[in-house]
Amino acid sequence: MLTRDLSVTILGNTGAGKSTLIRRLKGESIEDISPTTSIEVHQKTIRLRSQSYKSALSLEKYRSYRARAIDCPGDMSLWPYWKKALADYNTNGIIFLIDPTQDSKVQIDALTQVSNYYLMTLDDDVVRAERKARKVKAIFFLVVNKLDLLDYSKGKADQLIKEHYQTAWSHLKERYPSSGHYWEAISAIDESEQMYENIDGIFETIKREIYGE
Ligand SMILES: Nc1nc2c(ncn2[C@@H]2O[C@H](COP(=O)(O)OP(=O)(O)OP(=O)(O)O)[C@@H](O)[C@H]2O)c(=O)[nH]1
Ligand SMILES: [Mg+2]
């Protein structure tokens, strides 16, 4: 098969930059973005950087990746949409965006809620769901956005995660030990090559987790 699917659900508090990131992925203007109020499905055929380095004899060189991103509203009153999005769209990866300029408490609650909502998609019975959670191979990406407001310092993003999100992130890892857990720092508004590489790297990681190469 020359075409492969890569699908992600993008979650995080309101204003974290979820819709901005998706517009960047689609190559669309990021002006005039208003808060998202329902689940939105976006699709685009993309090429990963790594494909260009492959030999002309490799099938990988000619493959298309159909990226599908599910954008959700981040306003707390609309978090129940996350549960629906996770249940209705069988996505490979969950990208949780953190906004370093916002209060961490609500964002920690949001991250905890992601873990709980995802659990509910596994089974109606909590005990059975917890058991399934130990085996499920999902991919969780913690992504600090707005790196431009942290002086483009990945070290500062790392520090932010360690200071505020470590406990919630560790709980999630313990609940889903067979899944992939990664973190990255980006700026969705930055159009530099470096930032493109960071975003490409997220999809590359998800691709490797799913297709094993
Ligand atoms: N400085 C900076 N601002 C950003 C970045 N990414 C997004 N923003 C700004 O953050 C604001 C909110 O962005 P949205 O993409 O609407 O956020 P959202 O997470 O989709 O918000 P909801 O739809 O309400 O959940 C906008 O003003 C963006 O321009 C970034 O990397 N750096
Ligand atoms: Mg939005």
Explain what this protein looks like in three dimensions.
The protein has 213 residues and is an alpha/beta fold. It has a single domain (3-211), classed as P-loop containing nucleotide triphosphate hydrolases (Rossmann fold), CATH 3.40.50.300. The chain contains seven helices and six strands; from the N terminus they run βαβαβαβααβαβα. It has a six-stranded mixed sheet, with helices on both faces. The longest helix has 22 residues, at 154-175. The two termini are 15 Å apart. Residues 12, 14-20, 33, 35-36, 73-75, 145-146, 148-149, 187-189 line the site of guanosine-5'-triphosphate (GTP).
Key descriptive features of the protein:
binds magnesium ion, 6 strands, 20% strand, globular, single chain, 7 helices, Rossmann fold, 213 residues
* E-strand count: 6
- Bound small molecules, which ones? guanosine-5'-triphosphate, magnesium ion
- So, the CATH homologous superfamily? P-loop containing nucleotide triphosphate hydrolases
- What is the CATH topology descriptor? Rossmann fold
